[in-house]
Model the fold of this input.
Amino acid sequence: MTSKQKIIIAIDGYSSSGKSTIAKAIAKHLGYKYIDSGAMYRAVTLYALQNNLVDIHHHHVNEEKLKSLLDEININFRFNPEKNRQETYLNQENVEDEIRKMEVSNAVSIVSKLKFVREKMVRIQQKMGKEKGIVMDGRDIGTVVFPDAEIKIFMNANAEVRAERRYKELKENNVDVSYEEILENVKKRDHLDETRKESPLKKAKDAIELNNSNMTEKEQLQWILSLIHERMN
Ligand code: DC
Done:
């Protein structure tokens, strides 16, 4: 692959399957932009929660109100050199930590299934990829956002492995949750992601599957880089 020939790399898969870790590593390696599309759905969900538009107990979203406020929602990413990470901003406010909390995780499926929410996010994401040279992870990147992406990867790992990873991550950030709670949330989100009407999670026909239950990060990166090398030469 010549350095001038920039491509789009779409990484889809189940929640906590390690998409973002590997997507970030690839982006860094190639000098590409990394976009966490899940963070965008989380930010919209946070906005809906802040404005009391979600009734989580009744699985209900005030769609009409959210729709009317959609243009008020501005989402972007900024790199924080102190923490060496990209952070999500909602209307110019840093919400990176807020959007990872259980309250948002529990509500994100019912907000991200709304057609008008998805349409807006997809539009923004496609704009971000116009210049190529991007790695984006999510659920519908290879199927809906970038159906012509040069590289599509579909990641999976068994639910227990994924819950364990998420548990560790949240514990490191001092979030008070139990492993059982997380496992339940992971399974529930799998089901909702797979069965929703709008852009359900499914492997694109031309995506390559990567089950990383027993792979280290380094092995995964090597695997993907050699795939890119193979494909682009
Ligand atoms: O990747 P994540 O777990 O942070 O994503 C949060 C939620 O957003 C997830 O439950 C499904 C939804 N999502 C989506 O519907 N489409 C995407 N492209 C990315 C995430």
Observations:
- The mean pLDDT is 94.
